[in-house]
């Protein structure tokens, strides 16, 4: 090779390198997308760039799975990222800058030291937390006579088993306070929780599954004082209403500012009601019946309290809550929603809920 030819080749190589650096993925894109809390954009990033070595470079086959569209030979090329596309002009020396697919977008993530879960893959075991307080007939401890076992049973227990067995996905369930459970899922330390109604705050903090059961809203009142005048759901806002700490009362038409949630348990709320610190205590009828059925206090037939259904109130819809902070949030939501259906809900309601409700008859 002559000295002139060698100098020309070196110049071409340097020009190609400059063009590549000038038009490669902007560093700000990685700052905006690779490091952002939500990594949805990361999962969409499946390509890296390299200079194409003229005629000797391999041409990608049109329609291949790794490259849906053959690289263009025009002067403007585009690559889709989590944000707006940006253009890649042809190098000044005539060598085209091509998009080379890598085997998997996950490989790129691993090169940047990220976990495989950043690709959206579900972990080996999904981590679920539930309220330490029992929520019969949906989630509670099995009884053997008068002995309380540590085995979880109920409608939600069976629903989780059906969902995850169908998906062949492992999961664990941990009991803790309801406040802590919600915080752990919100932060991404745990993956999901169950038995939750919707609220604006929860819709921002979590992904909500489809409705998988509903309940009937009731209110308790003290027999020692005149029964509160509640003719519609709106009348609840005129009263000093008590609930439980960490619970949402959106189905009752009440926001956090409308309910005194100082009590941590139903029994504590009922003591507040008896002491005259509340006009009414809100609860779900099916849960109150379930508590009586498993041997807890039967507030429905308590001499100190009466109850009524809230006039005009539709049923409370219950969901599973998925953390928005785990990289596989959308995959987990799809898995859960795929397992929720009317046939399963009806079958489990007949199995787990109706027999408990019939005990009250």
TrEMBL record:
Coiled coil: none annotated. SMART domains: PBPb. InterPro entries: Solute-binding_3/MltF_N (IPR001638). Residues 125-360 form the Solute-binding protein family 3/N-terminal domain. Keywords: Signal. It holds the Pfam family SBP_bac_3. Residues 1-19 have a biased composition (Polar residues). Residues 1-20 are annotated as: Disordered. It comes from the Bacteria. The keyword Acyltransferase does not apply. This is Solute-binding protein family 3/N-terminal domain-containing protein.
